[in-house]
Amino acid sequence: GINMMHRVLSGAVLSATGSASYLFMNMLQRVQIHNYGAFHDIVSNFVDNHARKVSGARGAVSGGTLPPHRPIITVSNHSCNADDPLLWGALLPLRHFLTHPHAIRWVLGAQEVCFTNKLLSHYFTLGQVIPCIRGQGLMQPAVGTALEKLNQGEWVHVFPEGRVNQSDTLLKCRWGVGKLVAMAETTPIVLPLYHHGMQDIIPLDPSYVYMPPIISSSSSPSNLTNTIALSSTASSLQDGQPHVTVTSSRPKGPLLERIWRNMPSVNKKVDIYVGKPIDFMEEVSQLKKKCKEEEGLDRIDMLQKQTFSNIAARIEVELRRLQEQAKGT
Questions:
Q1: Contacts (Cβ under 8 Å, ≥6 apart) of 124
Q2: Can you tell me the distance from the alpha carbon of 77 to that of 87, in angstroms, rounded to the nearest whole number?
Q3: Contact 184, 71 (CB under 8 A)
Q4: Cβ-based neighbour number of residue 251 at 10 Å
Q5: Which residues lie below 8 Å from residue 156, measured CB to CB, with a gap of 6+?
Q6: pLDDT for the residue numbered 252
Q7: Highest mean pLDDT among 49-58, 75-84, 201-210, 217-226
Q8: Helix (H, G, I), strand (E, B) or coil at 181
Q9: Which residues does 137 contact at the CB level (< 8 Å), separation at least 6?
Q10: Distance CA 248, CA 125 (A)
Q11: What is the rounded distance in angstroms from the CA atom of residue 198 to the CA atom of residue 216?
């Protein structure tokens, strides 16, 4: 049926993209991973256990520190448009892309970057990218879809800065990652990553100026805003993800010139720093306890948002610690 065809195509996209990223990062770049053991314990063992669960095999892969029933959230800085999938090409073994492609991360991706036409929309959907409308807050469908994936025991990756940032200063972590941690049915393990050097592989297009998208209620797109068209027709994406087509107002130069400017560079030094896994189970338990004691919805909403903020702030502290480690090496 349609679901089986979608799964086959999705597996092909994930395998091909992941394998290409693996070869690109391991053969054409100079990558050094710091504290890889923590990544292997959490993420690589998660992928292996996920594959065993799907295949119906009993038992869990031994040696890891992640309980088999816990979902995971990886978070990282965002220094180029190809951080995902290149990060996973550098960090994951090739066998994961070839044999366990559906255990690879789900990731929130900006609609005005990833879903600009039907071809890209289908590609990124098959690649397990969740369309996110930047600036639309915690209640948008993307957050709900990411929560569904966590509740299904999946791995979700988040760029908590919210956009590409090639400066030396990390942006403030947004609350969305805090909501994912706090509201998941089983509290995820959070693994922070910081990388440096990706910005040299694909620098930001100098013609691009970040403009938060504005959803237009008019049927005719404005020349001054990005227009996002959502369709809930039969061509809508699987698992409640809407079919997304975005018309961007970013400047467009001659095609060949733009392709040349965005060609990835090779032989660049990339350092990836893996942080310590963070378990927010105590904070989430305290939130649930306090919410049970409260009767007013406004008070519960305030407690939830405070917890979202605290979780995001703690993740930001760990990312900044990893950044300082990177600067000191």
A1: 109, 114, 115, 131
A2: 11
A3: yes
A4: 11
A5: 71, 72, 73, 74, 105, 106, 107, 108, 146, 149, 150, 180, 188
A6: 53
A7: 75-84
A8: helix
A9: none
A10: 19
A11: 34
For residue 64 the two structure tokens come to: 């890891």
Under 8 Å CB-to-CB from 317, ≥6 apart: which residues?
Answer: none
Q: Compute the distance between CA of residue 88 and CA of residue 18 in angstroms, rounded to an integer.
A: 7
Indicate the average pLDDT of the chain: 84
Closest by alpha carbon to 182, among 276, 108, 107, 280? Answer: 280
d(CA 207, CA 253): 8
Q: Using the 8-state DSSP alphabet, how is residue 170 labeled?
A: P
Amino acid at 234: A
Residue given tokens 């961007």 in the structure block: 248
Look up residue 86 and give its two tokens: 């290149």
Bridge partners (DSSP) of residue 74 are: 157, 191
Distance CA 108, CA 57 (A): 30
Phi, psi (deg, nearest 5) at residue 318: -70, -40
Helix spans in the chain (H): 2-28, 36-39, 45-55, 83-91, 94-99, 111-114, 118-126, 141-151, 176-183, 198-201, 255-261, 281-293, 297-327
CA distance 4 to 8: 6
The pair of three-digit structure tokens given for residue 118, joined into one six-digit string: 């039907």
With left for phi above 0 and alpha for psi between -120 and 50, is residue 197 left, alpha or beta?
left
Helix/strand/coil for 74: strand
Q: For residues 92 and 15, is the Cβ–Cβ distance under 8 A? A: no
Q: What angle do CA 309, 310, 315 make, to 5 degrees?
A: 100
For residue 230, is pLDDT > 60?
A: no
Q: Give residue 240's pLDDT.
A: 44
**What distance in Å separates the CA atoms of residue 164 and residue 60, rounded to the nearest whole number?**
37
Q: What is the pLDDT of residues 117-152, one digit of tens each?
A: 999 999 999 999 999 998 888 899 999 999 999 999
Report the C-alpha gap between 271 and 133 in whole angstroms.
Answer: 30
Nearest to residue 7, comparing CAs of 238, 232, 231? 238
> Residue 130: which residues within 8 A CB-CB, separation 6 or more?
106, 107, 108, 109, 142, 145, 146, 149, 241
> What CA–CA distance (Å, rounded) separates 239 from 249?
29
